[in-house]
Design brief:
alpha+beta; Cytidine Deaminase, domain 2; 22% strand; globular
């Protein structure tokens, strides 16, 4: 029998450059407003739902920014397992998820509320705190604003 050589090709994952990352590293995330400028380049012109994960350290400085899901016009599938895998690998102790509504309407769907609750519960078990779940559209809506120390949804 003749020996055969098998070659494996490793596909590179495309990396997205975030303008201003250096400034962001120096400043902690203190409110949903801080996040708006960070996610704007990812979500502003998106024609599909995109979910972004922002992992944070003990001082609320970003440890990772990752696109978790790219969906369709009105939904995206999210894997809780993949979110926590990313957070563990980045040594994050807190996290924020942000997704857009291409329609611009930031009213949360039933699914938005369910996934937020699930992430919060799993985060508590894993000792990785969900600080917020944010919907980005014509404005931004914080689903857990009160946990941020009283940020009013009227102001967002």
């Amino acid at each position: 029998m003749e020996n055969q050589t098998v070659e494996f090709v490793r596909l590179k994952q495309e990396r997205i450059s975030v303008v201003g990352w250096e400034k962001l590293e120096a400043q902690p995330i203190t409110s949903p407003y801080t996040i708006s400028d960070l996610v704007k380049p990812f979500l502003e012109e998106a024609d599909r739902e995109i979910m972004i994960l922002l992992g944070l350290d003990t001082k609320n400085k970003p440890t990772v920014i990752s696109i978790i899901s790219i969906g369709t016009l009105n939904q995206s599938t999210v894997s809780v397992r993949e979110i926590f895998k990313t957070l563990l690998l980045a040594n994050s102790i807190r996290f924020i998820v942000v997704h857009n509504h291409p329609s611009g309407d930031t009213t949360p769907s039933e699914n938005d509320l369910k996934i937020t609750q699930k992430l919060k519960q799993v985060g508590e078990m894993m000792e990785i705190v969900l600080l917020d779940s944010i919907i980005y559209g014509d404005d931004i809506r914080s689903l857990l604003a009160n946990d941020w120390g009283g940020v009013s949804l009227d102001r967002i």
